[in-house]
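FIELD: query
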Amino acid sequence: MVPLVSFKQFVNDMRRQKLRTAMTMFGIFWGTCSIVLLFAFGKGLTEAQLRSMRGMGENIAIFWEGITAQEYKGLPKGRRIHFTEDDVTQIRQRGQHVERISAEYISYDVNIKYGKQSTARNIHGVWPEYGPMRNVNPVFGSRFINDRDMAERRRVVVIGNLLAEDLFGEDDPVGKEILVNGVPFKVVGVMKKKQQDSSYSGRDSRAGFIPSTTYRSMHSRRYLNNFVVQCKPTSTMLQTRREIYEIMGAKYKFDPSDTKAMAVWDTTEGFAFLKTFFIAFSAFLVGIGVATLITGGIGVTNIMNVVLEERTKEIGIKMAMGARKSFILWQFVTETLLITAVGGLLGFLFAWLLVSVFPAFNLEDYVGTPTINVWGGVIVIVILGLVGLGAGIFPARRAANLQPVQALKLF
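FIELD: result
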C-alpha cells in the first residue's frame, strides 16, 4: 500500500514542481551516467593498454650481454659476457622454469626489395619458438619458421603486415620471392596485425624474420644480439631469471647475483605495474563519479525537505487520523528512492547509448572499446541505493517525528 501511495504522491509532486524535480533528477542522472561511462571507458582503456603491451609477448624477458661488476673466484670484474646459440640451447635443456626460448640475431636497415619496391627494414634471425612467444602469429594460409627450415638453412622469410603492404600492396605475398640484401628469400608467412606499444628493436609489423641458421650462414656471426625467454605458467619470471643467471654464471664464471653480467628486460614487471596503475586510475575515475552522484543525492535531500515543508499540514492530518510514524517514514523514503531510481535509470540508459554508438567513431586504437560489465552495473545499483536511502532518511525522520497538533498549527 505504501509504495502505491508514494508513487501517486511522487507523480503529484512532479506535476506541481516540474522544474525543481527535473533539476534534482538531473543530478542523479549525471552522476549515474558518469559512473557508468567512467567504468566502461576505464575498463576499455585498461584492456587496450594491456593488450598493446602483450603484443610484444606475455611472460617474457629479453637478455643482452653485459659486463661483470663483481670479482669472482679470482677473476676480475669488468669482463664482457657474450652468448652463443649453444648457450641458449643449454638453457633450454637445463632450465626447469623455461617454457620457450629463442636466440635472436638482428641486422638493422637491411635493403629489402620486391620488383620496383624497395625499403630498409630490420631482419631477425630466430628460432621457431620465437613466433608464438613474441606473438608474431601468421595470417591464415601462411606459417612461421619451422624446424625443417632451421635444419636445412632454408632461405625463407616471415614478414610483418606493414612490410607486406609496403612491398606488395594488396597482393598476397605468400609464395613470392623478395631480395634481402640481394639474396632471394621466399615469403612463407605474413604476421597478423597486432597492437604493440613497446619494443626493443622496432615494431614487428615492419620487420622480417628468418631462420637463425640461415642468418648465421649469411653473416658468419658467432655472438647473438640477445635471446628471449618465456617462463612456464606455473613459474614466475623471477625464478626463471635466477635459474638463467645460475646456468650462465657456472659456464662463464661470474657470480649469479651479479645482475650487471647480463642485462635483462623483464616485461612482467612492467605488465604488473601497468595493471596496478590502471586499477588505481579506474578507481580514481569512479571516485569522481561517486562524488558527482553524492552531490545529486544532496539535491534530492534538499527537495525532500522542501516537500516536507509544503506537506506539513497533510502529514498532521494523516497522523491525526491514525497514520503511524512508520507509514510516514517509508512514504518519504519510497518517494526519495523513486526520484533516485528514475534519474539513475535515465542516466544508465544514456550511458549505454553512448557506449553502443562509440565504436562508430573508430577510436578503439586510442582509448580501447568501452564495455559495460555486470560488476559495474551492480556497483552502480548499490551506490544508487545508498545515495537514495541516505538522501531520504533524514527528511523522512523529520516528517515521522512531527506532532499532529504542531503540524496543524503551522498552517
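FIELD: remark
Residues 2-53+272-409 form one domain.
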